[in-house]
Every structure is written in C-alpha cells, then in structure tokens.
Amino acid sequence: MHVDSALGNAHSRAVLVRRVLIAALICVLALSALLWRVAHLQVTQHSHFVSLADQNRIRTVIVPPPRGRIMDRNGLLLADNQPSFQAEIVAEDVPEMSATLGLLQRLLSLEEGDLARIEKTLKRSRSFDSVTIKLNLSEDEIARLAAYRPWLPGVEVVPRLTRVYPYKSLVSHVVGYVGRISENDLKQVDETDYRGTTHFGKTGIERYYEARLHGRAGQQKVEVDAYGRVLRVLEETPPVPGEDLRLSLDIRLQAVAEAALGDYNGSIVALDARNGEVLALVSKPGFDANLFVNGISQANYDALIKDPARPLFNRAITATYPPGSTIKPVMGLAGLEHGLITPDTRMFAGPYYQLPNQDHKYRDWKKSGHGWVDLNLALAQSCDVYFYDLAYKMGIDRMHAFLRDFGLGEPSGVDLPGESAGLVPSRDWKRATRNQAWFPGETLIAGIGQGYMLSTPMQLADMTATLMRGGQRLRPHLLPGAAQAPVEDVVLRNPRYWDAARQGMFDVVNGKTGTARRIAEGVPYQIAGKTGTAQVFTVRQNESYDAKKLKRELHDHALFVGYAPAAPAGSEPPPVPEASRSDARIAVAVIAENGGSGSGTAAPIARKVMDAWLLGRVVGSTAPVGVPSRGE
Amino acid sequence: MRRGSLDTRAGWLTRWLRLDPFMLFLLLLVTLIGLGVGYSASGASVEQLTRQGIRYGLAFALMLAVAYVPPRFLRAWAPWFYGVGLLLLIAVDVAGEIGKGAQRWLDLGVVRFQPSELMKLAVPMMVAWYLADRPTPPRLLDVFVALLLIGVPMVLVMIQPDLGTALLVGSAGFFVLFLAGLPWRMLFGFALMAAAAVPVMWSYVMHDYQRQRVLTLFDPERDPLGTGYHIIQSKIAIGSGGLYGKGWLQGTQAHLDFLPEGTTDFILAVFAEEFGLMGVAVLLALYLLIILRGLFVATQAASSFGRLLAGAIGLTFFVYVFVNAGMVAGLLPVVGVPLPLVSYGGTSLVTLMIGFGILMSIHSHRGILGRAH
Asked: Which of A176, A239, A334, A489 is a plausible cystine mate for A203, CB 3.0–4.6 Å?
C-alpha cells in the first residue's frame, strides 16, 4: 500500500508536470494574444482612439459677437446694447426646489404660466444648467432678490446685453429692430457664424446691414466631463464684434420733421442733395421698436396690427401714393426735351380740357381756369389743363420713359429692405397686367400724376434732388460710403431746359401767384418746390370736391416736394445768412395723409425741415433745434 | 531539492512565516500598482486609497494565517467547506427566489458574506480531495463524480445569476480534473458537448441582459449608450493611451468620468490609458510570473492533493486575469470579473489572498509533508 501509493504519487506527479507545462504554454500564448490585442488598440489604432477621446472631452463653444451699434451722423446712439439683468436658477444648487420657486414667485410676481414654463425647462435641462426665471428685471426686483439671497441658494442675477432703441418710435422705420432669430433667418446666413446668436435684424437698417452689424462668432474649445460640465477653457478664438454703423441721418432733424407733421399721418424724406445721403426719414405713426426685441406680447402686437393708422407700415419707402402735381416739373422737362413745347409756348387754359370727339371734361383744380399760361406759370400755379394738353401730345409711352429716367417706377435703391417700386404706367404695362388697351384719357390723368401712377415719398425726394442737381443722379442712402448700384444721369438736349423747370419750381414759392408763396415769408434763404394733391376719393363727373362735406380719411393727401437753397434761373443761390452749413443742399418730400392741400399743409411742413437743416432752428420758434429727449 | 537564490537569502521568511518570498514579492508589486492606479481611478481620493490599503493589509494578514495551515488540514476540511458552501448557496438562491431578485449575499448581520466566493476555493479543494488518492488518469466514474462536484455549485451560482463567478468556480474545479490527467478524448468530448450546448444555453438558460452583453461585444455600436457604452469607452481609454500612456493621474477618460467602473472591473483601462502599452506589458508579465510561479509550486508539492490544488489556484488566477483583461480590451463579453489584486473591492481580494495563502502553505510544506508520508 505504501509502495503503491508512492508509485502512484510519482505517476500522478509526472502526469501533472506534463499537464502543467501544457497549461503554462497556453497561459503564455493567451496573455501574449491579449498583449497583441492591446498593442493593436494602443499602437495601430492609437490616433483613432485619441480623436475619439478628444471628441469625448472637448466641446466647441460658440462665443457670439457683440452686435454693432447704430448711430446718427452726430454719433447719437439709435440702437445700443445695454446690460439688462435676468434671474437664473441652477437646479443642483437648490436644496428644495418647490420652496425656492414659491419664494421666487412671490418676489418676482411670477404667473402660474411662467412657473409651469420654468418647471418644464428645469426638467429638460441638466442639473447644472442655468434656467432663466425672468428677463429684464426691474431695480426693485433685483433689490428684492439681493435681500432674500441667503434663502435663495442656486438663484443668480446675471447681466447680459440686450438691444435697446433709445428713441423708441422716432426712427423705428429707419433703424428697424432685431427679434429672436428664426429658422428662416438662419437659412440666409452662414449658420456656423450664427450658432449662439439669439437675435437677428428683422427690419430696417438692422435687417439691411445684418451681416456687418453681426460680426463673426468666436470659439472656445473647452474640456467637459462625461456629464457635460465645463471644466476649463483649452483654446479661444475671440469673436469679431459687429461693426458700429454711423448713418447719415440726423436724429435732431428727424425729430423736427416728425413734429412738423403735427397730427397728420404721413411721411417726410429729406436728402442731402450733394451726395444722396438721407438726412431724415419719417414715417408717421411709428412704433416702439423695443417691443419686438425679446418677443412682443400678443396684446401689443394686436394693438399695432389693428391700429387703422398702420404704424408698422413704412410710409416713406413701402407706401405708394399718386404723386399728383409734384411730377409736373419733370413733365415740363419731357415736353421741352421732345420739342413739344418751348419755355415760351403759351396756351389758353380754361376750367377743363376735352379730348377731341369726347364729352368727358378733364377738370382743372381751379374752377375758373388759369387763362393764358406758359410753362413757368403752369408750374407756379400748377395748371392742370396745360399738362393735360402736354400729356396728350406726348403720349403715354414717351411720358413713361422720361419719368423712369428720374427713378420713378423702380425702387430708389436706398439701403433699407422692403422698398416699393411704385408705378409709372405704360401701354405694355396695362396690356400685360390688365389685358386692356390704353385709353387716351388715361394719358391725361397720368400727366398730372394721378390715375395709375404711384410713387413713394423716397422716390419723390430723389426726383427732386435730381432736378436740383440738373440731372445728376445719386442713389439715396443712409450709410455713407456703402456700395450702391450704378445709376445713369439724365442728360437733356439743352441744359437750359433745367433752368426752365427749376424757375417754375422757384416761382411756386417765390412767384406772385405761386401755389406755395406763403412759405416764402420770413425765410432768409430761398426755396423751390412743387405742391401736389393725391386723390383719395374720386369726385364724380358733375360733383365738386368739398372738403367740408367729406370725412377726414377721404380728404386728399397733401404733397410738397422742394429743395433749398434755391435761386432764380441763371444765378447761384446766395449764401444762407446765419446758416451753420454754408454749402448745405437739401431736398425734401412731404406727404401729409388727408392733409387736403399741398400748399396749405405740406409746404409749411417742408419749410420747417429746411429751416432746421439750413438754419439750425425752426423760424418762428426761438428754440434751437436740440437733441430730442431719449425715450418718452 | 533545488532552491532559488531568493529562497536562500530570505530563508527566514520561508522558515518562520511559511512563505514563498518570490511569490510575495510579485504580489506586493502588483498590489502597489493596484494602489497607484486605484488612487488615480478614484479621482485621487485619499479616503478610498486608505480603505483599499486597509483591505490589502487585512488580506495579506489572512494570507499569512492561511499559509500556516498545513495542507493536510486543508485536505481534511475540504468536504466540510464544500458541504457548508453548498448549503449556503442553496440558502442564497432560496432567499433570492423569495425576494424576487438577484441574490448573491448572505446577510450575517455583522458582515455580508458571498457564498459563491467560498466556492471558488471549496470546489477545487473538494475535487482535489476526491481525485487525490484515485488512479491516474481518473476513471470514467471518477470523472463523472468530479463533474457533479463542479456542476452543482456552478449551476447554483449561475442562477443567482452571476455568470462571472460561475465561470471561475467551474474552471477552478475543471483545472483540477485537467491536472489530474483527464484523458484528452474526454476533454475534446466535453468541448464538443459544450459547443453543442451553446445554442441551448443561449435560448433557454441565459438571461436577456447576458445575451445583450455578448451581442454588444461583437458590435458595441448597436447600443452605444447602453450595454455598449462600457466597451466603447474602455477601448477609447486603452487606445488613446498609446505606447507610453498619458501619465499617472492624466487619463482623461477616467478623470472626466467617461469610463464607468474605473476603480473596479475596468481599472485595467485606466491603467492602460495612463501607462500605455509599456505599462500593460509589465503588468501582464507580472501576472504571468505569478501564474507560472503557482504552477511551479504545484510541480514541487509533496502530495497529490497539494499539487492539484496549487495548480488549480494558479490557473484560476490566469482565468481571472484573462477574463477581465479580455473584457476590458473588448475581446470577451462584459462579465463581472475584477482584475485580480488591482480592482478596488474586498470580496474577491480576500478569496484571492486565501488562495495564495494555500499556495504558500503548499510551497512551504513541500518537504515536510513529503517526508511525513
């Protein structure tokens, strides 16, 4: 037994040694295979996994650029970025959320809807994310939060920049506004530059120069942990701030112009005739652009939309009005250019005009008629019959071509979005859009700027500036130095024709019988211009227009276009006494809606604008033209 | 009788403490690595480092105590261990059935005890006890008895369910059978049967989450945030470590919490990320030396029981290393097997160190027992 056991022991040991050797070999091979596998991961696929590890931990955070500000020509801020304070909450720092929210509700007078929104956002966010509780905290609210700070762990008052329009409604149709960025907005821009951008220019300069105002987004490469918490900044490319834009507009002139409109809705466009810069662009009523920045409330929006005065409608560039008699100087030029008249051609103008073989009477605004008139008198007195006759001789197609040369019937190209083209009718236009033949009577109506003819106040101001410059055309613009589409000057056979047209405009104000002669009183410089009336209500054939019998909204629109300083033909305008700008040249178009008469309503308004620009004050008022108070 | 030079120089260790100095040296080295990586993986937590240090201390003390127990006592106690372990396993399973959930622990009031851990040693002891005095190679009947001794506890652990431990318990018992000279044709026969059993296991035995883990192994991207997340993040950690690693405490995957279970089952990924291929090679070499030393001890043991048990302990240690490293490197499915001696946690450490205590006992009693017989 002992021997057997010893022998068995030796045998089993020998078997075990063999087996151990095999097992050891397997162990060596298996661990080598394992090491080979690790080597494959760590050497062959090293760079692949390094990039995956970096993807894990490195996040690119977009740093949005500060938006450029918008200033008037004197550097007064029309659109500014101002710090506002908002309350934010970080869930993981709040020991008891319901108690904290309850306290916040009392301190900030939150509504149930706000609370529901906050709770919903908190659920969706990560525990260390900041959730906004309330935007634009008032000073009272900030003070209350500060006082209760020990009972509000996890609640922070955080500053951020918000767009502010200090002049509220005064320049809202020029500057426009920004609003929360939309999907549609993003389609128009390079999205990588707009990641992190919350606002986008929606209208006005804010929209037109969005790209320049926005700037370029910066980037931060940050290291995050598995939960997305930012641990440190690894690399940073600072954002390129948006460009500050200094407009040609003078906010003081803008304020004078707006005030000059008085109770009337309407529009005023004032251009620097030397270079096409827009000095004032009023569309009244305006609206408070600040309402739109962080989302307008439904009630406010409804109020704006339902207001019959349509405050959101840009009357200066989007609204189109019949230009009325304001186009008569250009009509006169067309007659001279086409050899249909000379400056001395005289005709007898009765109370109405009739086409051959037609009964219809095309009435003059003056019931008694003007008697014998030449071009000068026809312009000064705004004789309709003279221009009916001229239009009849000219025909609609030549009229169309000539008016187009002055920029009517196409957008002026001013650097604002949403500009209308207006309309200068023609035979082709009528056939194409209405499939109707052109009637000779329509030519007569077009000849005095009525009928189908439509233009924007901007186009009328541009036309007036072109007349002042003797045919040189310049695109109106708000941003000096901005690129503009080229435009062709108006060149006439005989440059003296310009003098004839301008003398007519000069006599509108300075002639004994000029329609706007009343505005010449007490002005230390001279004005040239043209009154106009745009019909809102068509008077029937055998009735006459009687303002007293019509409701105000059916009263004619009052128009006036003019420029200053002006001089009689053949002389340069003398220096304006007491003028702050001796070389100033201003062209103005005024439309006072339902203002009735161009001479009585629109012309004095234009003069106030010219006074303010040329003299630095409004004549008849001793107050200098000051900076309008911001806000209010 | 040959003796290594280390043995001679540190003869007193062998004589008074019944230790294998070479093995002790290897274990201490790996332990030190474990402390270093664990410190980094825990986010430089001194508190956790201290706790693990205390665990190491207790485990080493336990190893010293066990090393004093002569192998013949172990052999005598083997059936008792096995029997008690089996009863406890049944108790745990019944408790789990009642509690309607996975149950691995037996709450003894003061300590929570995991009977399946006991079986990692009790099963090879029992099989070695049974085969030690039987003919070599084992007869068919002996093989079946041995398989029964292995299979019953293995199934009991598997239904807990704890696939990783069941695997270790089963392989520990199987290694005894293999070292006892299990005929090759039977071995291949079993292998074939096992292969045939795979589809049955897949369809009827494995839990859904276990199937998910296997599927995820082959294609981690099928569920990148669920079961695949561990494997993906682990491979990223290893791969981004490169040849020399990112440096101690510099692993981004571990420190920014992308790698789950960095201090426990996936600690090798942290190590690979911070020390690179070089570090992994050194660690695997140390493990290989421990395994080979264990196998060497087996060949030197006086008794058949000691040989079989020592060899099985050495090879089980290999399975630990291979299954964990294979899982972390994306070669094997995710099963809950820690990296021996390095992963934080006390339970498996205690079992492992008792195992090494047994190895040392067998080593230091190799001559005495041989003469006593």
From this structure: A176
Residue A531 pairs with which residues in a beta bridge? A560
| Domain's final residue, options A226, A246, A266 | A246
User: How far out from the chain centre does Cα B97 lie?
Assistant: 27
Say if residue A153 is in the same domain as residue A300. Answer: no
Do A224 and A118 fall within a single domain? yes
SS3 per residue for B107-167? ECCCCEECHHHHHHHHHHHHHHHHHCCCCCCCCHHHHHHHHHHHHHHHHHHHCCCCHHHHH
Which residues on chain A are in Cβ contact (under 8 Å) with B329? 34, 37-38, 41
Cα separation, A56 vs B76, in Å, equals 56
CA distance B50 to chain A (A): 26
- Percentage of chain B exceeding pLDDT 70: 88
Which residue in chain B is spatially nearest to A21 when comparing CA positions?
Answer: B295
Higher-scoring residue by pLDDT: A180, B38: B38
pLDDT at B108 over 60: no
Give A61-78 pLDDT, tens digit per residue. Answer: 778 899 999 999 999 999
Among candidate residues A172, A325, A426, A599, the one labeled active-site is: A325
CB atoms within 10 A of CB A248: 21
Lowest mean pLDDT, pick from A299-303, A552-556, B31-35, B48-52: A552-556
Q: How far apart are CA B278 and CA B262, in angstroms?
A: 20
Return the closest-CA partner of residue A305 out of A321, A281, A287, A282: A287
Number of H helices, E strands in chain A: 22, 19
List of residues 6+ apart from A238 with CB closer than 8 A: A63, A218
Say if strands A347-349 and A155-164 run parallel, antiparallel, or are unpaired: unpaired
The domain tally of chain B equals: 1
Instruction: Give the chain A residue whose CA is nearest to the CA of B233.
Output: A53
Residue A325: active-site member: yes
Q: Rounded CA gap, B217 and A182, in Å?
A: 44
Q: Are residues A217 and A257 in the same domain?
A: no
Secondary structure class of A559 (helix, strand, coil): strand
Domain end (from A205, A227, A246): A246
